[in-house]
Design brief:
The structure is a single chain. It contains seven helices and nine strands, in the order αααββαβαβαββαβββ. It is α/β, with parallel strands linked by helices and about 220 residues long. The protein has a single domain (about 5-210), classed as Vaccinia Virus protein VP39 (Rossmann fold, 3-Layer(aba) Sandwich). The strands form two sheets. A seven-stranded mixed beta sheet has the order 5-4-3-6-7-8-9. The longest helix is centred in the N-terminal third of the chain and has 15 residues, at about 10-25. Bound molecules: S-adenosyl-L-homocysteine.
């Protein structure tokens, strides 16, 4: 990695990052801790060098293996919905991908446990986040449909790939008082759902329509 790349794309990087933050504010992201967590993450380090100049545009980008890095506004919305202004200790993420959402979460919560089914992405991203000095992330190469029972219960669970319905293990691994943010639906369009585990039962609400890659079973 060249030093120019490591330190951002010259001076434009700070300016373009600020522009992204004002776009997020204009789109209703008002939690200062979420905005700060996003400001801290060098998104250009999570995409292919050829796409780095577009890293601070509010768009999804390809990360290889048929997967995409989520659009910053969607990352911000999901993170804001998950935290609800509270401090979270341990969060489970399903679908590590390139690790951008993972890094945003790691700036905000005590510990992130993240699961990825594609071995090559799991390895690449674990190394990337280690190089970026994140030390509060646990990585698993596994099938997120099973959650990650070892560290359960979680204060929050966030999925960045869409199943047709909420996987039972995720419900079981959530702490009472905790929240799940997950896209639910078919291949082309899904609803981003917020599911809360209250002492008396489950509460579901719809955040908005989104377009994620499908949550597939098994690891490869
Ligand atoms: N938050 C990521 C989004 C990556 S796309 C980012 O910003 O880069 C979604 C990811 O979910 C892909 O990497 C895909 O391989 C992964 N995925 C799909 N089904 C999965 C499963 N059952 N368990 C774990 N990861 C899964």
């Amino acid at each position: 990695m060249s030093s120019q790349r490591r330190h951002g794309i010259g001076m434009t990087s700070a300016r373009t990052r600020e522009r992204l933050l004002s776009r997020l504010r204009d789109s209703g992201i008002d939690n200062p801790r979420v905005l700060e967590a996003i400001r801290q993450v060098p998104r250009h380090m999570f995409v292919d060098e050829a796409l780095a100049s577009r890293a601070y545009e509010d768009i999804a980008l390809p990360i290889g293996h048929g997967q995409t890095i989520s659009q910053p506004l969607v990352v911000a919305l999901m993170t804001q919905a998950l935290s609800a202004g509270k401090h979270l200790q341990r969060v489970l993420e399903i679908g590590t991908g390139c690790g951008y959402q993972t890094a945003v979460l790691a700036n905000l919560v005590d510990e992130v446990c993240t699961v990825e089914r594609i071995a090559a992405l799991f390895r690449l991203t674990r190394n990337r986040l280690f190089d970026l000095k994140y030390r509060n992330i646990k990585f698993l190469h596994g099938d997120g449909l099973q959650g990650w029972p070892e560290y359960a219960p979680y204060d929050g669970i966030l999925a960045t790939a869409a199943p047709e319905e909420v996987p039972r293990p995720l419900l079981d691994q959530l702490q009472t008082g905790g929240r799940i943010v997950i896209p639910i639906g078919g291949r082309s369009l899904q609803k981003l759902m917020l599911i809360e585990k209250t002492p008396t039962g489950w509460e579901h609400s719809e955040i908005e329509s989104v377009n994620f890659v499908p949550l597939l079973s098994g690891k490869i």
